[in-house]
Amino acid sequence: MGREFCSVILNFMYKGFTLVELITVLVIIGIIVAFVAPQFAVTKERALDREAKATLALIQAAENIYKMELNSYYPSPAGTISNDTAANTDLINANLKLSLPVAGASSAWNYSVNSNAPGQATATRNKAGGRTFSNLFTSDAISCTPNGDICPP
């Protein structure tokens, strides 16, 4: 009886998997991926939102230091602001002594400091229908303006 049992086990081990078993496993894996994949996109967007809020808080701190040193927020109302987001980021980095990521198509956010309303910074999501976060330096609140997207809590 021992040899017959071993023979059955060895035959099963070397037999391999049938096509039905392989397809069943692939279908189960596909179903699991279909449930999990959308959560990765949501998690990524939440992380990018946190990045924008943290960067706006960093800009706010740098603006406060700038105001203490020069008695006005950057840029002053007479300051020049370009429509070029990369140039704006370079100006912010140079004047506020920061190192924000360079704006552009590969960047998740474009940052700007409003010259019409000194003491206000904006982070705009760099994708179609993206969100915009604004931070007014006279308060600690960061507001979100949806543009086809829902703002996170």
Classify the beta-strand content into a percent band: 5-15%
* Average pLDDT over all residues: 75
Helical stretch count? 3
Low-confidence stretches: none
Strand order of the largest sheet: 1-2-3-4
Strand elements, count: 4
The arrangement of helices and strands along the chain is HHHEEEE
Shape: rod-shaped
Question: Helicity level, as a percent range?
Answer: 40-55%
Radius of gyration: 27 Å
Biggest sheet record: 4 strands, antiparallel
Distance between the termini: 67 Å
Domain count? 1
Oligomer: single chain
Decide which structural class fits the backbone: alpha+beta
Overall description:
The chain is α+β, with helices and mostly antiparallel strands and 153 residues long. The protein has 3 helices and 4 strands. Strands 1-2-3-4 form a 4-stranded antiparallel beta sheet. The N and C termini lie far apart (67 Å).
